[in-house]
Amino acid sequence: MIFTGCNKKNTWEVIQQIKVHLNRSRMLKLTADHNWEHLYRQHYSLYEAIELHNIQQGDQIMQEHMALTIADQEMLMEKYPQYYKQRSAD
After folding, report:
1. Max alpha carbon distance in the chain (Å)?
2. H or E stretch including 7?
3. Which of 32, 60, 62, 70 has the fewest Cβ atoms within 10 Å of its own Cβ atom?
């Protein structure tokens, strides 16, 4: 609904194509880190930005939120290597 409302339906379709990987990362992150308050605050702030039609704030929050996903990858790969394809040294 958020992506459709922001006229970013194509972005949502791309996310759906890689959803399995995103879901794995999200579930592992929730398992590895039980401090969910930060995630709750981010989601609530995004809701507020949408409600207030504050595009700049919403964009900033989404960028920060997505950056967390990227930043967490290395930690998750280290902690749960069995869930990630091993890269060859070639």
Report:
1. 50
2. none
3. 70
Contacts of 53 (CB under 8 A, 6+ apart): none
Check if the beta carbon of residue 82 is closer than 8 Å to that of residue 23: no
Please identify which residue in the block is written with the tokens 């949408």.
50
d(CA 15, CA 20): 9
pTM exceeds cut of 0.85? no
User: Can you tell me the distance from the alpha carbon of 4 to that of 50, in angstroms, rounded to the nearest whole number?
Assistant: 12
Q: Give 63-87 pLDDT, tens digit per residue.
A: 998 888 778 887 888 888 887 776 6
At residue 42's C-alpha, the angle toward residues 76 and 67, to 5°, is 45
Dist CA 75 CA 69 (whole Å): 11
